[in-house]
Amino acid sequence: MDRLLYIGMTAAKHTELAQTTNAHNLANANTTGFRSDFYSLMSEQVNGGGLPTRINAIADMKISDYSQGTITTTGRPLDVAINGPGWFVVEAPEGGEALSRRGDFHLTTDGMLINGAGLPVMGDGGPLAVPEHDSLTIGADGTISIVPLGLGPESSVVVDRIKLVEADAEQLRKGEDGLLRLADGSEAKVSADIRLATSSLESSNVNTIEAMVNMIELARRYEMQVKVMSTAKTVDEAGAQLMRLE
Question: Signal sequence: where (predicted)?
């Protein structure tokens, strides 16, 4: 009965992992620029005493869906969305640079440009700081221009350019903080070809209907796997009872 129990246990373990990942996707369905996740599984021989008759399914790595979300016009000057492939660069909480698609930018009281998660947005010259101004414009190439206080539109000056980079999706890994980095620890290549949709935001690419259906399917699958383990216990107890009768 150990094989039946082992199959049920292994399946239930990874179904629970899938449920957690699916719930995380649903929780971020309204997070700007969020990329949905899933885990890839691989088979691994169980080694030890006795014959090699067991194969274990293990979670290989977390993989993200990098397809683009829907771009919606907001009319807000500090909202920008990357139109096509590419990434914003932000300063990670523990330091260093990381990649994100969040374009819901804000200015702090001291003029620092941050995204909706409160992370500093990087420019070509480091974390972006914007002086006091009468108006601000973000260009399609990421340049930030302002009209200084008390001056007319003809006095518009370029402050900096939002750092926009390109990266091979196969080389990207998402951390526990939800930010992406290159697997080898290197920095992504700056690209002048990336274009922004200004006064717009990119939605999460989570398909909520699909995620809800998946949640129901996973719940039923988990229930079935628990029943398999319960059946294994019942059969084992019945076998032990027969042995006692002999």
Answer: none
From CA 159, how far away is CA 182, in angstroms rounded?
28
Contact status, residue 219 vs residue 85, Cβ threshold 8 Å: no
Domain segments of the chain as ranges: 2-66+206-245, 71-202
Q: What's the predicted TM-score (pTM) here?
A: 0.80
- Distance between CA atoms of 212 and 210, rounded to whole angstroms? 5
C-alpha triplet 101, 88, 211: angle, nearest 5°: 15
Strand ranges inside 87-231, DSSP E: 87-91, 97-100, 106-107, 113-114, 122-123, 126-127, 133-138, 143-148, 157-161, 164-166, 172-174, 180-182, 189-190, 196-198, 200-202
